[in-house]
What we know:
The structure holds 2 protein chains of 2 kinds.
Chain A: E1 20-24, E2 27-31, H1 37-43, E3 69-70, E4 89-91, H2 95-109, H3 126-134, E5 156-157, E6 163-166, H4 175-184, E7 189-192, E8 199-202, H5 218-222, E9 228-230, H6 231-236, E10 241-246, E11 255-261, E12 264-270, H7 283-287, E13 302-303, E14 312-313, H8 316-334, E15 339-343, H9 349-363, E16 368-370, H10 372-387, E17 404-408, H11 412-415, H12 417-428, E18 432-436, E19 445-446, E20 449-450, E21 453-455, H13 462-475, H14 481-487, H15 491-498, H16 505-512, H17 516-528, E22 532-536, H18 538-541, H19 546-559, E23 570-572, H20 579-584, E24 591-592, E25 596-597, H21 601-611, H22 623-632, E26 637-641, H23 645-648, H24 652-661, E27 664-668, H25 674-678, E28 682-684
Parallel strand pairs in A: 1-4, 15-16, 15-26, 17-18, 17-22, 18-21, 22-23, 26-27, 27-28
Antiparallel strand pairs in A: 1-2, 3-4, 5-6, 6-9, 7-8, 10-11, 11-12, 13-14, 13-28, 19-20, 24-25
Chain B: H1 2-8, E1 13-15, E2 28-32, E3 35-39, H2 44-52, E4 75-78, H3 85-88, E5 95-98, H4 103-106, H5 124-129, H6 134-140, H7 144-154, H8 166-175, E6 182-187, H9 196-203, H10 205-219, E7 223-228, H11 233-249, E8 264-269, H12 279-286, E9 310-314, H13 315-327, H14 329-333, E10 336-337, E11 340-341, E12 343-350, E13 356-361, H15 366-373, E14 383-388, E15 395-397, H16 407-412, E16 421-426, H17 431-445, H18 451-454, H19 456-468, H20 473-490, H21 494-498, H22 500-509
Helix pairs in contact in B: 1-2, 6-10, 6-13, 7-8, 7-10, 9-10, 9-11, 10-13, 17-19, 17-22, 19-20, 20-22
Amino acid sequence: MSLLKEPDYGTPAREGEATVEVTIDGVAVTVPPGTSVMRAAKQAGLDIPKLCATDSLEAFGSCRLCVVEIDGARGTPASCTTPVAPGMVVRTQTEKLGKLRRGVMELYISDHPLDCLTCSANGDCELQDMAGVTGLREVRYGSGVDAGANHMDLLKDTSNPYFDFDASKCIACSRCVRACDEVQGTIALTISGRGFDSKVAAGAGVPFMESDCVSCGACVQACPTATLQEKSVVELGMPTRSVITTCAYCGVGCSFKAELRGDELVRMVPYKDGGANEGHSCVKGRFAFGYASHPDRVMKPMLRESIADEWREVSWEEAIGFTARRLREIQAEHGAGSIGAITSSRTTNEEVYAVQKLVRAVFGNNNVDTCARVCHSPTGYGLKQTFGTSAGTQDFKSVEKADVILLIGANPTDAHPVFASRMKRRLRQGAKLVVIDPRRIDLVRTPHIEAAHHLALQPGTNVAVLNALAHVIVTEGLVDRAFTEERCEEVAGWETFIARPEHSPEAVAEITGVAAEDMRAAARLYAGAGNGAIYYGLGVTEHSQGSTTVMAMANLAMATGNIGRDGVGVNPLRGQNNVQGSCDMGSFPHELPGYRHVGDDDVRDIYEQLWGTPILSEPGLRIPNMFDSAIDGSFRALFVQGEDIAQSDPNTQHVHAALAALDLVVVQDLFVNETAKSRTSCCRARRSWRRTARSPTPSAGSTGSAR
Amino acid sequence: MVAERLTAAGADVVRTGSRGMLWLEPLVEVETPAGRVGYGPVAPEDVDGLVAAGMLAAPERPTRRAETSDSPEGGRVVHPGPASPAIRHGESGVYLGLVEDLPWMRRQQRVTFARVGVVDPLSADDYVTHGGLTGLRAALRTSPTAVVEAVVESGLRGRGGAGFPTGIKWRTVLGAEADVKFVCCNADEGDSGTFADRMLIEGDPFTLIEGMTIAAHAVGATEGYVYLRSEYPDAVETLTAAIGVARERGWLGERILDSDLTFDLHVRVGAGAYICGEETSMLESLEGKRGQVRAKPPIPALEGLFGRPTVVNNVLSLASVPAILADGAASYAALGVGRSRGTSVFQLGGNVARGGIVETAFGITLGELVEDLGGGTASGRPARAVQVGGPLGAYLPVEKFDLSMDYEAFTEAGAMLGHGGIVVFDDTVDMAAMARFAFSFCAEESCGKCTPCRVGAVRGVETIDRIRTGQDREKNLVLLEDLCELMTDGSLCAMGGLTPMPVRSAVQHFGEDFTR
């Protein structure tokens, strides 16, 4: 694929039906109310010159390049800030407009270095594009020092490890400032000074690294010139091709354009079409791609007979042949159930599907489990019990409609930054936040955001707090009757249970460490919200009562009717980018793809037909069982796909002992990880930027209801 | 000082606002049965002589009280009995006779400024005695819609400079649905040569409060802000005190004058940026943000302060409303010419013999203001140019002295009334330098948001410098005109959009100054 340039509509899309018809340069186009003339024009295939506008940011109206003429309107309004009106007739190209645009470009270029050929943005510079589009041929003021006052001598801020800020090339369009504000929500940037002295400033005019900047790179992406530029582009030059891929760092699962020159990764640019991130990213996804070309990357299969041996680079034939032979030998000696595999939630659906199929159809057992076992099996279990489907109920966009957000055991600004940005945007618009977490996470109080309630509970009291909230909802008559009567089962029994005095906030205040009044207030807030949404993380699921907590949250949502539409729901914030997908694909030892139990004859029949081989009806080993069985000698070989169990699974000594006891460990990874180091016979991996398989976002589930 | 000496002489001295006759300050007015007798300018050392000559003497009834000011706003001494002949013909030469009879005052039609210079600014009783609250009471007796329609009918247009019909703006805010609406008063009077807002706030703050309260009733607002520039510390003090008095009297707060109206008012002090007098920048500043212009739409009437429907009006617009409600829209609309109804408060300044406030119906000519009222230049040299409407207003030559002071006539002449500031220059003025000043003012005060203003103003200064020093003069004059066209048509707000007005008018009317 060549370099992918996504269309820029200039201003964000407006929701609603396309009901407003306008005519732009003779082309009729119909758009939703509130759409800008600029966006409508783009939709009609007409590009209006622009510099300060980009469709990830609200219109600003500062560059004045996008001026148009509108029948019946005075002057030459900016098309970015002018909404369409029914019957509007717009002209985007007239002699007068051409002159105005050239005049604006003449001013810009009079204060801009003319080093285009050696500039790092050469070929990817909107200022350059606009000079071309407007037909600028002469700068009568002179340029830079010849013109007079200028910013040519401003110093470059290279303090950030990932990007440079070259103020001499800044056109003061504020796109970076607005991206930091509107997209990321960190508000680290501002414009200092006024008039010609207007300058982009990080913090109170300090170097970027000393400011509140979190290096998410939204400013770099928004910059139309070389002012904010990735260091990798400065060093390597412009990329020439793009590959769409999914970031594997966290549970958000952002879509990216990996931009390469040849096979060299030049930069990662978040992909606008990615539903999880819609063109935004965090520092890791955008800048932490050093692993792609790291010298430690394992590019060829490697093998060693014992841990005492040196790694040997081998051919794929030898690696595969060795592995297959050893697995069969071990099964012959110790039984079919003596081997198994662990799938990775950081790989694609297809890859996970292949591993579980390998186990079931080739190994002839069900010894397959997923790393999601450790982080989110309570989610799978709890949501299946309550809603019938092991899936979060919303996509990430849903948060834009939430009015009250219950955030439980999660710290999104650190762990799910891109989702946190979306949540913060909604909170800044006025949605209320309740944080239930022992930690005083950033969202409790951060610029322009303050939680309405922070229930700083004692660790281990999740269920008590959630039941107390439910108690308030039931005993204060806040249950959404219409919803529960139509859609929920066993409501009366639950209400009787939860209304018992021992569940009251007053009764649990002591063990939870949360003031009863705070719990009451939080419950009322959530129950009274137009749209109440619950988001939770490992602070829920990695407790022994994780499944019960998940069910308690589901009950809260059902009791208040906060399920089944945008802005509500019960939403797990997962640990990895494809937890949902890997579970969907049949990674659990008791479930075939689609959460269908291996004990079900009809289900097995489907896959036996498909795969042409019998499938065991007994569930296989879970990850902890695999470790235990390895130590007791009944489990002898493990295939690990994209996970470092030696480092990330609990009870490390136990895990290490299990690995040491195994006859064969096969690791499929990019690097010789700790698992491979501890005891490995075969290690192979290749992450290529050609992968096009799909991995759904972790919470791209169906919306659910209890029935 | 003057007040101290008068007090020592036994007078009851009360400081009032200014009558607007700045060349007569400090002005002392002695209240007599015949009316206010004026003395000015009075120096402290004059006082003993005046008193000895009978300034305060021979009252037919006992002295009740006296009011005055030391400097420069004038004041009054309430005192029965005419001044003695000794004073009238005294050597000090400060005796003025009845203030109402002074030609300066007789030429005026004081509606908005009716009480300024007359009342004790912070005396609620004085305010009511002089007709205060009549407008608000009338408004509260009728519906919001009726009030809005009265303001529409009066023909009142925005006195801040844009001249947008006030009633139409109010109608938009009234029709907007919102949980909260605001009334914001723009008192960031930054135009050079303007001082009417300050005079009004310092001299009759209750009128502004009453006008804003009427606006609140008319549009359904519950909260109001006055954005007052930090350069006016006395106005800040006076208005803040007046709001306190108004709250005590039940003129602000809940159930105003026993009606259902709830409205409260707060003063916010600017930080010295001219651009914050632009209404959207002012709103940003009121929200605690950088004073930067917002693009319109949305208009503030629909999405203003904190995104809520907001009336944004100038001090003079709001202060004109009580009189409209008190005396009826028709009586206000009866004044003026064409579509410029009512009165305008002109401010004479610069190189002028008699500077000050002139409130008169639209339609007086520029020449009458400058020559008849202003008495020509202070330097005594021939007047050459007059800038009307602040630093972004046009420079008009004496040939334009027959221009009628109304919105349409000025627009037609490529000029604008603005906030009514009139700055006079004599024949020593270098108009190329004045054109350069327009750009350098813009460069200094631009918010920096839009390109034509941010970069254009700086390039404008440089281009004029090249013209003045004879570098490629013809080409640079063409470039200058292109820049003016770009800024006029391309700027985001009136700051950049109007900067070319003084430049182009200077080139048009005083072209010879650019080719010397």
